[in-house]
Amino acid sequence: MPVGLLVNLSARNLFRHRRRNAMLLLAICVAVAGVTVLNSLVRGMQEDMRDAAVENLTGHVKVLAPGYRDDPGIQHRFAPGKDWHSGVSGDALAGWAARVVVPAVIMSERETRGLQLAGVDPARESISFLGDVPVLGERLQDAGDNRILVGRALAEQLETDVGYRVVVITRGADGSTREAGFRVAGIFDADGTALEKAFAFSGLRYVQSLLGTGDVTELSLRLRDDAATDAVVRNLQARLPELQVLSWQELEPQAAAMYAMADTAIYIWFLVMMGALIFGLVNTLITAVMERTRELGMLRAVGMRRGAVLVQVVLESALVMTAGVTLGLVAGAVLAWMLRDGIDLSRWAAGAELAGMSSRLVPRLLPGDLALLAAMSLGFGVLASLYPAWRAVKIEPLEAMRR
Amino acid sequence: MTDLVVDCRGVGRIYGDGVPVRALESVDFQVRRGEFVSLSGPSGSGKSTLLNLIGGLDRPTQGEVRVDGELLNALSEPALADLRLHKLGFVFQAYNLIPVLSARENVEFILQLQGVGASERRRRALEMLEALGLAGLADRRPGELSGGQQQRVAIARAIVTRPVLLLADEPSANLDSVTTEELLKLLRNLNEAHGLTIVTATHDPLVMGYSRRKVKLRDGAVVDDAVVEPV
Amino acid sequence: MTGAMALQIGWRNLWRNRRRTWLTAGGVAFAVFLVVATMCVQLGSYRTMEETATSLLTGHVQIQSADYVEEERLEDALSAAGLLAARVRQVEGVAAATPRMEAFVLASAGERSFGAQLLGIEPQSHARVVSFHERIIHGRDLRSAGEGVLGETLARNLGVEVGDEAVLLGSAREGGVAALVVRVVGLFRTGMAELDRGLLLAHIDDVREAFELQDRVHTLVVRTPDLDAVDRTVDALVTALPPRWPEDAGGEPVRVRSWQEVLPELRQAIEIDRISGALMYWIVMVLVGFSVVNTFIMTVYERTREFGVLLAIGMRPRRIMVMLQWEAVFIWALGTGTGLLLATALVAWLGRVGIYLGEEMEQLAREMYMPTRLYPTFTTEALLTAPLVMFVGTQLAAVLPSLRILRLEPATALRVPA
After folding, report:
1. Is residue A97 a contact partner of residue A121, using CB atoms and an 8 Å limit?
2. What is the pLDDT of residue A86?
3. Is residue C417 packed enough to be buried (19+ CB in 10 Å), middle (13-18) or exposed (0-12)?
4. Which burial class, exposed, middle or buried, applies to A264 when counting CB atoms under 10 A from its CB (0-12, 13-18, 19+)?
5. How does pLDDT run across C266-296, given as a tens digit for each residue?
6. Rounded to an integer, what distance in angstroms lies between the CA atom of residue C216 and that of residue C177?
7. pLDDT at site B95
8. Across the interface, which of C74, C295, C368 has its CB nearest the CB of A354?
9. DSSP letter for each residue of B85-150
10. What are phi and psi of C102, to 5 degrees?
């Protein structure tokens, strides 16, 4: 097959009707740029949802005592062995933290609220939102710190402030009620999310002593690469058979479902855009074939095979697509770059949180996605050209003799 | 190898399914190597149908068509295309040049279809254009050429492959008489000096005048077949 | 040429290239179908989300002390609750109203205790305002004093079952200890983890007594005949109620809030979804617009010679343009008709059988106040947006290429090969 000739002819035909091919190119460009930007936003959202899920004390992987998830209390505690994490390679592990998280009631002089009291080692909490959350007042010093860190929304409800005292009531390891006074070390600001009301933090060793145990209720691991999650879960579960090892997808099924849904959304968007595009594409290609009836007839008359005519039309479509897709990807990437500071969703912060997103949506371009988009668009261009190509193939050599 | 370039025996062609139109009725027609034949007759006489059948562009409903010894009836579509590519040259009434290609490329592409290498086909195309007096116009596109120049490019395209037979369908229809005469001189020269076999369908007396053998058709049958010495 | 003639010629011209006409109209149909159908699903799901969310506990309108809205302090309850409720029930648009007390308690059973939100409700009127009673999965709904209804998870954490007793401790208005013992008569499951783990309901009389809030109310929850009546009813309530309650100088400031204000996250989530949906609609409609422009570029190009003839015999360019505009109208009508027909058929069918979201989505749906099946509904907005936008789009798409006709010289046009 004379491939060189076909490419040459197809390419030149693109410049035959500049206006309408420019229009077609523009349409492809808009569709591809649109999908690219939307794709980058969806990826940004996914990342956000996963980070939010992972950072809100969940981590990529969590180790719990069996029964803790159903009944999160100190009765479901465990003592991690010294080298429990030796099965996880240091390269995969970004960090880990041991915590005691128990239900508690917190009281100020004016108000009473229920929450989770978390005993943490501040040095290890770089893996969670606690590591970099803005704090009014002071952060916890170390695992022995006997002060408390509360969320802003909770502090407002309790009408408490930095330096004030609050009382925390919870149940000790022996089942008896424990009551302790804490001084408020600081107030953390988690963008008004539910975290502000759900957790209060104090030093791990201090909370352990309050509860009368040296055990913890959870181990949380942050990994360098999300993809390693499943392998780490299997690995740890094998080493800690008596404990429950869970991935973030299992711990935050909503976030995982949203995450998976976003993947599908990208394909739906693509199909919708291409669906809207196909009518114009097919229309233009058919016109291009029909107005060249005599020329295509001549090519057949002088001995071009049917297959070569078919390839010529398919190539023409593929070339328009390639040009449009290239422009579209560039335009989309530029748009995404212009949005690199993120789209401010703070007007809808609570709604965004309901959907697991943070209040700033930053687009993320993944090379793999761009390649997939380009490949799918090209495939689509070929698909759209099949009917016009079939019409072209049906043109008889006799057409060359007309007129 | 036979001396008969075209050998039609009992060739007929009926068009249409409902009311059949008999375009050609059992025609016997032969062309020897080196002949310059004109097929003429009023429209509907069957001259174009006969030309198309010889050119392998159409298939007869009866009879046999042989070109250069090959029975066209038996050839598959791709084989027929190959035969057209390698053995026949076509000149069309409407020139049928590809508007997006230059004159040289219009001549070259047929060699490209044959699989000739780039440098050789460029050389041959330029040689052919030069031989036809188009040397300076090789890089122009058809839109930038006159009708006569376009038809000469079309002839260059048709003979650059050194075909066994050149088929020309109303080659002068879109040309004025001066240009037509130039074209005919060119064809006669190709016929006489290079031994190219030519069959043309025409109703132009000028074209008939230049041919060496005049075949007249009427209502799908050959009514006159005369060899004349050229003027 | 008369207008009727332009119309007729436009219609005939359309069928000179059937394939192109149908492909162009097909694009319009695709856009109209897609946008109308998804908008019906979207708007329908918003409506169901809103209904699900408001009928759970929130109600359509809430009346509270403005201080309570701000601070959520126990003592900021409106007094003369009975009188207030009677006033509210007379306001036009109030289908039902129920008083509710809210307090934080430590719920204990045996050795175990958990913090929880306590709602004191008046069972009869409560059931007329919200349908929380439908969420009871074990036992029965609250009927009288001394009874309590607990979230499924809370009950499990406390280790209590229907028939057991739970002790509720909190701080009363004057700072004393509020203590209350309830017999668990039912367990509920809302699907929202926070509520199932941290909410319990008791009789309003018990709560008032224990927390020393006699004849007071934290929230009057109002139901209106339907969601469309909410804004009207809020206005009516604001007008009908005094700015402070009771009306004398010592009254608390009254605040009337619609569900949108009470559940901002729901309204915002809907808004985000609306915006992202609108983005898709617009891109799709623009794309189809391009395809219509292209069709007219091709049409005008192919008919240049014909237009030359018309101009040569003295037709005004404007007339030719009108003719082309009519062609655009027909393409729009064909496309929109087809698209609307398909969309309404699909939506009518889905409206009957519902869209099942799949097992994975069920939990997610509950958290988002969504039912597990979506029932799309027809709304004027959903039905009209795409057809109107596409009308303007096709008209514009036809104008741009046909501007060329204005610059057309009859002589040049005639020389173009047909």
Report:
1. yes
2. 77
3. exposed
4. exposed
5. 888 788 788 888 888 888 888 888 888 888 8
6. 18
7. 87
8. C368
9. HHHEEEE-TT----TTS-HHHHHHHHHHHHT--HHHHHHHHHHHHHHTT-GGGTT--GGGS-HHHH
10. -130, 130
Instruction: Tell me, yes or no, if A318 comes closer than 8 A to chain B by beta carbon.
Output: no
User: In this structure, are residues B225 and B63 in contact, taking their beta carbons and an 8 Å threshold?
Assistant: no
For residue A327, the distance in angstroms to the closest alpha carbon of chain C comes to 16
Q: Give the pLDDT of residue C361.
A: 66
Q: How does DSSP assign A39-66, residue by residue? A: HHHHHHHHHHHHHHHIIIII-SEEEE-T
Cross-sheet strand order for the sheet of B4-15: B21-32, B4-15, B62-67, B70-71
C329 vs A185: CA distance, rounded Å: 71
Non-local (6+) Cβ contacts of B94 within 8 A are A294, A402, A403, B174
Reference B11, options B39, B34, B33, B36; nearest CA is: B39
Cβ pair C269:A107 closer than 8 A: no
Q: Which residue, A286, A267, A265, A287, is CA-closest to A275? A: A267
Strand-pairing partners, residue A364, are: none
Q: Which residue has the tokens 């020139």?
A: B95
Q: For the stretch C219-251, what's the b/e string if a residue is b when 16 or more beta carbons lie within 10 angstroms of its beta carbon?
A: bbbbbbeeeebbeebbebbeeebeebbeeeeeb
Q: How far, in Å, CA of C17 to CA of A287, rounded?
A: 10
Average pLDDT in the B20-24 region?
Answer: 87
ipTM of the complex: 0.88
Touching check for A23 and chain C: CB below 8 Å? Answer: yes
**Tokens coding B177:** 């008489």
Which structure tokens are listed for C224? 């209106």
Euclidean distance between CA atoms A211 and A204, whole angstroms: 11
Q: What is the largest CA-CA distance in chain A?
A: 104
Which amino acid, C164?
Answer: D
- Name the nearest CA neighbour of B108 among B122, B91, B129, B128: B122
Could you give the 3-state DSSP secondary structure of residue A166?
Answer: strand
User: Are residues C245 and C84 in contact, defined by beta-carbon separation less than 8 angstroms?
Assistant: yes
CA distance B231 to chain A (A): 30
Query: How far is residue A294's CA from residue A281's CA, in Å, rounded to a whole number?
Result: 22
- Residue C325: CA count within 13 A, CB half-sphere: 16
Cα nearest neighbour of C159 on chain A = A71
CB distance A247 to A349 below 8 Å: no
Contacts of B113 in chain A (CB under 8 A): 2, 5, 302-304, 308
Cβ atoms within 10 Å, residue A396? 14
Query: Residue A101 in contact with residue A72, Cβ under 8 Å?
Result: yes
Q: Band the pLDDT of C309: cuts 50, 70, 90.
A: confident
**How many C-alpha atoms does C383 have within 13 Å on its Cβ side?**
13
Cβ neighbours of residue B195 under 8 Å, at least 6 residues apart? B33, B34
Q: How many CA atoms lie within 13 A of B57 on its CB side?
A: 26
Lowest-pLDDT choice from A102-111, B149-158, C206-215: A102-111
Region B156-176: what's the mean pLDDT?
91
Per-residue pLDDT, C376 = 86
CB of A345 closer than 8 Å to CB of A332? no
Residues contacting residue C318 through CB under 8 Å, at least 6 positions apart: none
C-beta atoms surrounding A97 within 10 Å: 24
Interface of A with C in 71-130 (CB under 8 A): 71-73, 103-105, 107, 110-115
pLDDT: which is higher, A252 or B197 = B197
Question: Strand C112-121 relative to strand C199-203: parallel, antiparallel, unpaired?
Answer: parallel
- Picking from B45, B5, B40, B39, the residue whose alpha carbon sits closest to that of residue B25 is B45
Interface of C with A in 106-125 (CB under 8 A): 106, 111-117
DSSP C167: E
